[in-house]
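Note to self: keep these together.
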Amino acid sequence: MHNRVAGSIAVLALMTVFSSAALAQRGGGTRGAAPAAPSVPHDPHDLTGVWLGGGGGGGNRNPVTQWLRQAPPLTAEGKAKMDSNKSGKGPRAVMPALGNDPIGDANPPGLMRTLVYNRPLQIINAGDQIVTLFEWGHFWRSIWMDARKVPDDPDPRWYGYSVGHWDGDTLVVDTVGLDPRGWLDEWGTPFSEETKVEERWHRVDRDTLELTFTLTDPKYYSKPWTSDTRTFRLQGKNSPDHELLEVIFAPLDEQEFNRRVRNPAAGVK
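Structure:
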């Protein structure tokens, strides 16, 4: 990763709003360009494979609201929290070196920010749990499928505590305990320790997986809000994204990127 970041310095100097980790990926324009073969019979309860969604993490629209018909309804406390988040992107953007994006210090992106961003993920069935591997940050989370309940007072985790069950052919995942030091997206959209997330994953056919999520956070949002449906495509063996890259938020790399690019661009010594 360090070599890839170093090779991108000339471009990054002009685009300081992007993180070194994000630019260490393969070019976004080629991801998912080679879809899997036409659909064949499949087990809708087996989500095994590498999947890539479209959209999120770019352009002039908030990555979260790219999944919504309107902006999430913030409470007064939620608005104050969002105003305190100084992002390198969006309408309130500041120079990254002057911001407080937790990713700038090589912290994990967390569950929701990872889901709304356009990075491949791999799903593995492992008996009493389903494991989701995320390329972005090289993290994972377990979805427990053994009929347990989510804990009433969970310790905070970057990827939360998740349990799942099948509702027909839809995998329903309930997550609590998300670490509120993270952001929902790169614009600084916040969430609190009271957040609960319900994901609904539905395999439409062998090659197509759909996701919607509902976020409930009475501290920062005046009502629960539900995303539009996002579609993921199964990455076949001929796709460049059939295997996940090792993309790790290494503090050494991020500190070097800050020293060489972010800080000089903002006049920070």
